[in-house]
Automatic annotation (TrEMBL):
Biased composition (Basic and acidic residues): 77-90
Alphabetical UniProt keywords: Membrane, Transmembrane, Transmembrane helix
Transmembrane regions listed in the UniProt entry: 104-126
Protein name stated in the entry: Uncharacterized protein
Location of region: Disordered: 36-55, 71-98
Organism: Treponema rectale
Amino acid sequence: MEKKSRVIKYQSLRKKISNMDVYSFVEQEDVAKNLPPVSHLSPEENPLPPSSDGIKKNTLSVTLDELIASHESYSQESEKKEMKERYKQKQKERKRREHTLTQGGILLAVFIPLCLIVVAFIILFVTGVF
């Protein structure tokens, strides 16, 4: 008996759902009555503070000159960021090269005189001085 009453009870809702238009932009009364009104929200509960930096204008309400100016400023900012990144990358690469050259310079400064001393001892040994 309970199943029959449930079927009858929700029959109108099932019919409403099956006849629902997916692309409807009209707010239905039964949906709106379940939502809390925005004016009743306290400042703590309101997700967007009144001075939030949201979208002030959309691209349909902006003039073409403003749109071009904003695009130019955006492209200039992105170029600046890209140049900074390239500069940082080149600085890192230069420091790495200087570091390896310094290590290589120390190696050469020690290795060449050591080789010269060894060659001098070999020459002296071969000539019979020792």
